[in-house]
Amino acid sequence: MLAVMSEKTIALVTGANKGIGYEIAAALGALGWSVGVGARDERRRLDAVAKLRAAGADAFGVPLDVTDDASVTAAARLIEERAGGLDVLVNNAGVAGGRPEEPTALGPETVRRLVETNVIGVIRVTNAMLPLLRHSAHPRIVNQSSHVGSLALQTTPGVDLGGISGAYAPTKTFLNAVTIQYAKELSGTRILINNACPGYVATDLNGFSGTQTPEQGAAIAVRLATLPDDGPTGQMFDDNGVVPW
């Protein structure tokens, strides 16, 4: 982890009003960072900020719908005006496809909805925040991916990734591919961008069927958000290390 951050480190976590996103915000806040709680639901956003502040974190709310251009633009403007800049972006917001997810049973509208949030939303937010990140001394981008997005794991005999996922898993594969291209473009800059695999975490995304807590799931994103300047970029990690694409 970074031993010393330049003045106060500013982070934005999308989808931070609950689950893993909230725990990422809590962990970064506990480091003394100023954390923007990105969320589209006003009541949940306000409640999350209040809870974080009660725990001693310097948290502030950021109205943010990652599927809406105007909302994302306004969020970038708010962060610049309120915090003066941005050091770390955690693209955590995501949606699941529900059941069934067999490709033959999927409607195109389901796939479009997931891609809009899980992939295009990440691109939209990242591009809006990059002008702020470029001014940071230690800029980091963490994208919330998943083991189910790994083509290597999906095609390894004996690896159990929870059955067929014709929409959600491919959006994470798409996100992985996008992250690689960002890493190529940003090579030679100070910006490190990596994907995190939180594991099978009990959240409303999976009907709370996961075996890990949101706090446990947040750990790898926090680790990637606090990488030293010579840390890796353009890779995917879980708690055990590198995850194959």
What does this structure look like?
- The chain is of the alpha/beta class and about 240 residues long.
- Helix content is about 40%, strand content about 15%.
- The chain has helices at about 20-30, 40-55, 70-85, 110-135, 150-155, 170-185, 215-225; strands at about 10-15, 35-40, 60-65, 90, 140-145, 190-195, 235-240, 240.
- The chain has an eight-stranded mixed sheet with strand order 3-2-1-4-5-6-7-8, sandwiched between helices.
- Strand 7 and strand 8 form a beta hairpin.
- Helix 1 (about 20-30) packs across helix 7, helix 3 (about 70-85) packs parallel to helix 4 and helix 4 runs parallel beside helix 6.
- The radius of gyration is 17 Å and the shape is globular.
- The chain starts with 9 loop residues before the first strand and ends with a strand.
- Mean pLDDT is about 95; it is low at about 1-5.
